Amino acid sequence: MKARLSRMLDILSDFLAPRKGLLPILGLILVIANAVLQFIPGSGWLATSNLMLHLGIILAILGFLLAWAL
Length: 70
Hints:
Layout: H1 2-16, H2 22-37, H3 45-49, H4 51-69
């Protein structure tokens, strides 16, 4: 189990190392999509719960931390 987790982290870090801005950009896209959903009538629980806003902020923060570490 430890070996597989270590291998997956190695693959992920090898993928993200040359693409340092990918996660913050994806987080920003999620935040913008949440803002757009607020103005669409009938968008349901996705807009009222602000799920994409929260996921976007968490993803952007993790992206900045990983970019700084890598």
